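hiii so um. not sure if this is the right channel but i have a protein structure encoded as tokens and i wanna go backwards to a sequence. like what aa goes where. can anyone help
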């Protein structure tokens, strides 16, 4: 399980439980237990990093943000809303064993064509890629 993998984000003190062989993690933002998948482990670390290290208020973080692409209902992992209630950052999280490749980049760009965030962050917990959307183009940033 990904809990044993050392992520690039600071450690979190997560509430977990196991029922009938299934592990769960407490999501304090949504106030509910979620199945602890490797991707969810990365998402919870990413959210903690955004709040603690990047000082983003929890109230501005939306998870499973609805994205409608050609009539298909999709969901962006995390969207950070700015002070004007508009999407500012779109974050796509993957499990540590999933490479952040061109397919993942294109997925985030498709989502952002609907969402309209200025920044895209892509992470598998081992790497973090940052992009800024300006003047109709995406450009990679060395850091966020």
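sure thing!! here u go:
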């Amino acid at each position: 399980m990904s809990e044993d993998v050392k992520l690039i984000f600071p450690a979190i003190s997560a509430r977990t439980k196991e029922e009938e062989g299934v592990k769960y993690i407490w999501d304090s933002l949504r106030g509910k237990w979620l199945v602890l998948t490797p991707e969810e482990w990365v998402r919870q670390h990413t959210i903690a990093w955004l709040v603690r290290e990047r000082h983003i208020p929890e109230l501005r973080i939306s998870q499973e943000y609805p994205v409608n692409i050609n009539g298909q209902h999709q969901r962006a992992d995390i969207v950070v809303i700015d002070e004007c209630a508009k999407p500012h950052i779109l974050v796509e999280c993957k499990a540590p064993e999933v490479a952040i490749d061109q397919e993942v980049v294109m997925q985030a760009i498709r989502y952002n064509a609907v969402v309209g965030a200025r920044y895209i962050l892509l992470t598998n917990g081992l790497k973090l890629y940052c992009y800024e959307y300006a003047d109709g183009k995406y450009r990679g940033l060395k850091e966020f």
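oh and The CA atoms of residues 63 and 78 lie 5 Å apart.
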